[in-house]
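Example S7 (structure tokens).
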């Protein structure tokens, strides 16, 4: 189970809350990360292409899960240092994207354990965004949905892959194809995880899904 505390009040922005418009600091960090600070190493063209495709998404995910800018930067920097120094091994993997995603999640989990935080999603404004976005989506698909009461717990109890898809799609706003690329899985698998997550949440909340083709109405 992913234990998720109730999020803070919407109008109270902590310094560590994932920024809505604070991309300048993020860009600065990514530029530093691109140089793999402290390591005598020059990225190959394929490494740079991989970095350009996924580093920002990895940083945003880590920030959302950890609730801390500095912690997210440290975790992602370690991940990309590992990838840079083991790139030939990474390329032998069936999916370098899936390898990098697994590495990122392991580093996030390790940081949470070492910092004494038991949950995968800590108290951040981002989780409230997830609940609100999921609630709005479900209002179109559930016969009755009056409040987000119980939704926090329902999302937190999702299986890992379904939970990640909800975070990537509804919190970070990535379409299915991009989520699939980041996680190293197929778009159909992303849609399946999203559908199963919706069904699990419906069961948890005691609601009935409407027969409408929900995915056709959602952002792809």
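Recovered sequence:
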């Amino acid at each position: 189970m992913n234990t998720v505390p109730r999020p803070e009040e919407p109008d109270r922005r902590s310094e560590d809350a994932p920024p809505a418009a604070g991309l300048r600091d993020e860009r600065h960090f990514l530029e530093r990360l691109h140089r793999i600070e402290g390591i005598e190493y020059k990225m190959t063209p394929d490494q740079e292409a991989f970095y350009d495709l996924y580093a920002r998404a990895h940083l945003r995910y880590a920030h959302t899960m950890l609730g801390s800018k500095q912690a997210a930067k440290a975790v992602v920097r370690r991940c990309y240092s590992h990838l840079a120094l083991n790139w030939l091994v990474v390329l032998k993997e069936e999916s370098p994207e899936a390898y990098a995603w697994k590495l990122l999640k392991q580093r996030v989990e390790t940081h949470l354990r070492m910092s004494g935080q038991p949950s995968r999603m800590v108290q951040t404004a981002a989780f409230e965004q997830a609940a609100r976005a999921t609630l709005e989506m479900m209002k179109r698909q559930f016969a009755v949905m009056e409040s987000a009461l119980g939704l926090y717990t329902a999302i937190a109890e999702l299986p890992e892959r379904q939970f990640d898809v909800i975070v990537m799609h509804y919190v970070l706003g990535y379409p299915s194809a991009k989520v699939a690329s980041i996680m190293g899985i197929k778009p159909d698998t992303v849609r399946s995880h999203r559908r199963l997550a919706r069904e699990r949440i419906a069961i948890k909340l005691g609601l009935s899904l409407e027969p409408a083709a929900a995915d056709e109405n959602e952002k792809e």
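Notes on this example. The chain has a mean pLDDT of 75.
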